[in-house]
Amino acid sequence: MKDADILLEWRNDPETRKASHNTAEVQRNDHISWLSRTLGNPDRRLYVAEENGDPVGTVRADFSDGVWELSWTVSPRARGRGVAKRMVAVLANEISDPIRAEVKTGNISSARIAEHAGMVFERETDGVLHYMRAALG
Ligand SMILES: CC(C)(COP(=O)(O)OP(=O)(O)OC[C@H]1O[C@@H](n2cnc3c(N)ncnc32)[C@H](O)[C@@H]1OP(=O)(O)O)[C@@H](O)C(=O)NCCC(=O)NCCS
Questions:
Q1: Mean pLDDT value of segment 72-92
Q2: Is the CATH number 3.40.50.720 carried by domain 4-133?
Q3: 110 pLDDT higher than 90
Q4: 3-state DSSP percent of the chain in helix, strand and coil, to 5
Q5: Of all protein residues, whose CA lies closest to atom 12 belonging to ligand 1?
Q6: Once rounded to an integer, what is the mean pLDDT over residues 104-132?
Q7: 81 partner at 20 to 30 Å CA-CA among 5, 89, 113, 114?
Q8: Domain locations in the chain as residue ranges
Q9: What is the pLDDT confidence band of residue 127, given thresholds at 50, 70 and 90?
């Protein structure tokens, strides 16, 4: 919960909104109730990546039908220096179940991030690229 404000700031950053399925600005009270539901949801894990103790990004993992769907955001102040590639790959390597990700067409950085984490492009539907990686081991 101590990360609530930084997560909301990143969520409402214009680039993050553009990359999200829901592009609307999120209000603080809605964010707080979303975060408290998230923290109590056994099928959802929310990670904050830190560099020297400073929060630089977040990855969410949602479990459904045997697959973890990953989504990610990097702090606008920490972009363009490999944070997303590293944090998503670290989490992907910790998950032995299959993983997937949805990336909007044109989000070239995130397509590279998904591939770097071992996911492969499967198909495109309605402007969304679907990436998938089978179970490890
Ligand atoms: C997309 C986002 C996560 C990238 O984070 P980042 O830490 O800057 O990414 P990285 O530095 O790890 O770079 C990832 C790849 O994208 C490329 N890249 C980075 N910035 C880029 C830019 N402005 N234009 C084109 N490519 C870019 C990098 O070169 C790298 O690929 P490469 O190493 O194969 O060359 C970040 O910009 C962000 O949070 N955006 C808003 C939210 C979002 O898009 N979330 C993803 C939804 S699926």
A1: 98
A2: no
A3: yes
A4: 35, 35, 30
A5: 82
A6: 97
A7: 5
A8: 4-133
A9: very high
